[in-house]
Amino acid sequence: MCWCAQGCRGFNHTGLPLWCCDSGVYDTVMAGIWSEVWTLYLILALGTPDPSPAPREKSHDFRRILLGLDKCNACIGTSICNKFFKDEIRLERWLTAQSNLSSADVRSFEGNYTDSTAGWRPVVLSQLMSPHLHKISDKSICTSAGKGKSCSIEAVLRATSRFQSWVRSNILLPGMVKGLVTPMLRCPSQRLLDRIVRRYFEVTDVGSVQMKHFSEKDKLRLLYTLAVNQQPLILLMFPGTEGWPFLRYHGSCGRMMVCAGSRPLRSLFNSPLEHRADIVYQLLHITQSLSANSLQFSLFYTSVSEDMFGTLDDSRVFIVDASTIGIIDLQEGHPPDEDLLPEYLDVFSRLSESYARPPPCETVRATQSFTLLCKHVLNKLLIPNDVQFGQLPRAAVNELANCADQSQSDQRIITAIQTLKNILQTLRACSALYGYRYPECLYSDKF
After folding, report:
1. b/e for 114-123, b at 16 or more Cβ within 10 A?
2. pLDDT tens digits for 100-125?
3. DSSP tag of 378
4. Cα(3)–Cα(30) distance, rounded to whole angstroms?
5. Which of 278, 311, 285 is CA-nearest to residue 438?
6. Among 291, 299, 285, which Cα is nearest to 233's?
């Protein structure tokens, strides 16, 4: 059948009429037919359009809020965001009970991570602070500028004199971090600050002590991280791949950082004595290595709890929380303690969970880390409440008490530590359960 009054010029192989005499009429008719065909195809393929946001869009909005991306550039960074949105980092309850996750005052979540080199591995996703403290901190930023309870946090921080000094400088100088209360900045040397910049891989080009390749947003993120929580920076400066006792840092997205997962130390308090002896031996060894290393940086504990440490499947012990570790540069020494001028007591100096300024570095004893460790962690491991006291040799109990007694001299505490390690060495088993030193322990007393 032809749609032209003058008739058609035959039919093609599909059965449709060929070019008509009145080509304008034919074009109009055919355009209408194809429009209807495509509409029908899209309905069949995609279904009826839903005016509400798609589940995937809702999921992405939820993730942005949970990750804190809506608060950037007052955040850690964005180096691993693509992993989140490609579902290569997953939480067990990521898409279920979202309201509970977003409203609960939870600081960390267990998850799984994958990349092109391996299968799924356990990770921990942690915020710099708990959501409740983040809200308080954000509110304090606004009130510091007289903006009320809500404002553009980034705009307020950018306008501060401290950040403007960062914008003008290509070198991170001690005066630019003065007044920040994170422990590692209590007595910073230029060599320490250079290492922070050189190892900060939230920027595209890493390895230079100069910040010429830093954008203003990069500088703000680094300054914000230094002011709030040093944890990601410690993991970057002293990576486990170079022998340091810290878990692997995978990256960050917004206000969330991703690190390798581990088993809580508290879960081992009632384990067999040989296992607890092995853990304590490792903790003492780790603490010694932090204070004496080839880089000439003395890392020390400012506070200690069992949540600070964790173990892997091979029974190796790692430091999980590095937020309370101080650093003294043994090569350059530390500057004399001075009273802070008002310009250094700004909004950045009040962003940390603890507003208290750590004590001067010259007051840090050589045995401070050991005393805190013995008092708050080792006694729980070696003398748990529901394990027979008699299992631990009396000499070990005495030396543990000396180690935890800060009234003892440094030399007496060091002697107690070495004696305790010698006793623990005899209690450790050579077994495949301790994969980090097996089978080497079969052939050497060192392990």
Report:
1. beeeeeeeeb
2. 554 557 788 889 998 877 788 999 99
3. I
4. 10
5. 278
6. 299
Q: Is the dihedral of CA 226, 230, 233, 238 positive or negative?
A: positive
Integer CA distances (angstroms), 350 to 95, 139, 144, 175, 354, in order = 35, 12, 10, 17, 8
The whole-model pTM stands at 0.82
Tokens 């930023």 found at: 141
Contact call for residues 257 and 232 (beta carbons, < 8 A): yes
Cβ burial, residue 444 (10 Å; 0-12/13-18/19+): exposed
Which tokens sit at 139?
A: 């509110």
> Which amino acid makes up residue 431?
S
Distance of CA 311 to the CA centre of its chain: 17
pLDDT score, position 361: 86
**What separation, in Å, do the N-terminal and C-terminal C-alpha atoms of the chain show?**
94
Cis omega (within 30 of 0) for bond into 385: no
> What are the distances in angstroms from CA 356 to CA 91, 266, 444?
35, 28, 47
Burial class (CB in 10 A: 0-12, 13-18, 19+), 54: exposed
How far is Cα 249 from Cα 190, in angstroms, rounded to an integer?
Answer: 24
* The pair of three-digit structure tokens given for residue 406, joined into one six-digit string: 């800060």
The encoded tokens of residue 182 equal 């994170």
Give the pLDDT score at 366. Answer: 94
Q: Which residue carries 């058609």 as its tokens?
A: 8
Contact 184, 326 (CB under 8 A): yes
- The CA-based angle 384-385-386, given to 5 degrees, is 100
Residue bearing tokens 């990770």: 123
Q: Which residues pair with 259 in a beta bridge?
A: 124, 249
Encode pLDDT of 268-319 as tens digits.
998 999 999 999 999 999 999 999 999 999 999 999 999 999 999 999 999 9
- In whole angstroms, give the CA distance from residue 425 to residue 89: 40
Q: How far is residue 387 CA from its own chain's centroid?
A: 35
**pLDDT < 50 positions in the chain:** 1-55, 95-99, 102, 386-387, 389
Preceding peptide of 439 cis, ω within 30°: yes
